[in-house]
Amino acid sequence: MKKKYFTDAERRAANRAGVKRYQQTEKGKASQKRYKQSQKGRIMGRAAEKRYRQSVEYKAIKKQYAQSKKGRAVSKKAGRKFLLKQYDMTLDDYDRMFAEQKGRCAICKTHQSKFGTALAVDHNRKNKKVRGLLCINCNTDLQVLENKVFCKKANMYLEIHRAE
Ligand SMILES: [Zn+2]
Which of 64, 164, 77, 83 is nearest to 122 (CA)? Predict the structure, then answer.
């Protein structure tokens, strides 16, 4: 005898099966393609990609790649090109400096492995002389500190609010 009523679970299963059947038809495939190409489909795709990039799995793959021969070769090549162009520095100069600092940021002393990127070359903007290798955070903070106009204004602002 045919059952007249379905339980919720049965109804959900039937719906899922129906959706699956539809997705396999030409019409269903075309509709899925349209959705993926639509703005909403793209946003969903980006969100999924972002989730993936934050996953442990992706980070492990990234780390593995960075430590691999190819990863090292790529970053060395990119680093060489960048250093030579910007600071008139060779990769050997960079490596020597890196070894002298034991792979740590010259300011906060955090090791490079704690950051996603290589230590940045810090230089004196006036005479272009290289001062040291800094982590991304310290490099940014130092730039702020060196901006005298900003520091003066920021100090005035802090002074105003100190009494509060
Ligand atoms: Zn630092």
Answer: 83
Instruction: Locate 15 and state its tokens.
Output: 């719906």
Residue 110 alpha carbon to ligand 1 centre in Å: 6
Q: In this structure, how many other beta carbons lie within 10 angstroms of the beta carbon of residue 105?
A: 23
CA distance linking residue 12 with residue 16, whole number of Å: 6
Which residue stretches of the chain have pLDDT < 70? 1-4, 73-74, 76-77, 79-84
Which conformational region is residue 130 in: left (phi greater than 0), alpha (psi within -120 to 50 degrees), or beta?
beta
CATH 1.10.3720.10 fits 68-146, yes or no: no
Supply the pTM of this predicted model.
Answer: 0.49
Cα 104 to middle of ligand 1, angstroms: 8
Question: Residue 82, CB half-sphere, CA atoms under 13 Å: how many?
Answer: 11
Per-residue pLDDT at 126:
84
Q: What is the pLDDT of residue 150?
A: 94
Residues lying with their CB under 5 A of ligand 1, a single-atom ion? 105, 107-108, 135, 138
Which tokens sit at 51?
A: 């989730």
